[in-house]
Design a protein that fits this description.
binds uracil, globular, two-stranded antiparallel sheet, alpha/beta
Length: 208
């Protein structure tokens, strides 16, 4: 895939890119999703958070991180001293991938082709939002933001040189905290997650 933006590409606004993404047919995920869930937040955001893909509730609402993982994430941002209004929230993949389980829609991990097909929307978001820092949440986002080298549990909280933003790092996905086996494990995982976010808050939002 040629990823060099043309002059016309460079002139597009985020709103125009979002409209284009609404009609995305670059892979088959649109067929079973309600809608494209594009990123949300201000241009010039000091921080961009990248998740994997919208979940069941995000798919219905058309907004990223509004379900249970989003609630945990938003609470953790407050605890870490990060103003949500200064954050651009997005996902590596913009359509919900799921399989039926009775009446429920069960999350399925996007595959390599689906992740690759969606990449251009993320690149446009980064180019137009120009975030001061990017945090990849979980392995799928890390693969898009940082490539295949970094591993979430080994490298969480480390800073990586990147052309995408002055500060680029990764941590766990909030849904992994929700999946922790018991309350004690959940509390520990949540504390470490807030710690990772707070380390970036210190750089990006000093004095808060
Ligand atoms: N999980 C994600 O990765 N993104 C969302 O928007 C919601 C849940």
């Amino acid at each position: 895939m040629n990823d060099q933006p043309t002059k016309r590409d460079r002139a597009r606004t985020l709103a125009q890119v979002e409209r284009d993404a609404d009609g995305c047919r670059r892979c088959d995920l649109y067929k079973h999703a309600t809608q494209t869930v594009f990123g949300a937040g201000p241009v010039g955001a000091k921080l961009m958070l990248v998740g994997e893909q919208p979940g069941d509730q995000e798919d219905k609402a058309g907004e990223p991180f509004v379900g249970p993982a989003g609630t945990l994430l938003r609470e953790a941002l407050v605890e870490a001293g990060i103003p949500i209004a200064a954050v651009y929230l997005t996902n590596a993949v913009k359509h919900f991938k799921w399989k039926p389980a009775g009446k429920r829609r069960l999350h399925e991990r996007p595959n390599r082709e689906e992740i690759l097909a969606c990449r251009l929307w993320f690149d446009d978001e980064v180019r137009l939002v120009k975030p001061g820092a990017i945090i990849a949440l979980g392995a799928t986002a890390a693969s898009v933001v940082l490539g295949s080298g970094p591993k979430v549990l080994r490298d969480r909280g480390k800073l990586f040189p990147s052309p995408l933003a002055p500060i680029v790092t990764l941590t766990v996905h909030p849904s992994s905290i929700l999946r922790a086996p018991d309350a004690a494990a959940r509390a520990t995982a949540r504390r470490l997650f807030v710690r990772d976010l707070a380390a970036i808050a210190k750089r990006q939002f000093p004095g808060r």
